[in-house]
Input
Amino acid sequence: MLKMGAMAGLLLAMSSAAYATNQVTLVNPSCNLTTGCLFTGNADPNTVDNLEAAYNAAFDPDIDLTWLGSTGDNFAGKGQLSGTWSFNVPVDYLAVKAGNQFMLYFVGGVTSGTWSTAGLFNPNGKTHPQLGLSHLSFYDGLDSGGSGQDLPTPEVGTWAMMATGFGLMGVIMRTRRKQAAYLA
Output
């Protein structure tokens, strides 16, 4: 009798519908919004506060997101691996949802762009090409200072390498000009 009760409980658990959860978790706290931050959960109007809390627990400055909308079931990219999007108002953040994960990107106040499900994982933990897009979610957003999220500033070494490259190009051009004048 005990075995039948356990079996009935197992069958009931397996046959119950799975519902979307409002829980949102940041998977990799060392991510970057320019290249995308991976979250588990759902990106919809009911999870905005949870999304902010998950991101803000790991990063400073905090972000303050406002839900703008999402693509519907008639979106041409649904089920696809990549594509383009457009929205009627400027979008600061874009969430790309597939499976039980989504990537959040800072796109910086644009009304169109491209999207991809690259970086999302299937339930087996492997990067998937088999799971297509569920939907895109669009957000307006500010950081805690009241301004839009800034793109990363190049490091000092990057500026030094660029200046050195321009200097070398100038030396090469000057040397060639002297050689051309000498031969003429």
Remarks:
- Residues 15-143 form one domain.
- Confidence is low (pLDDT under 50) at residues 1-19.
- The beta strands are 25-26, 37-40, 63-70, 82-98, 101-116, 135-143.
- Residues 156-183 form the longest helix (28 residues).
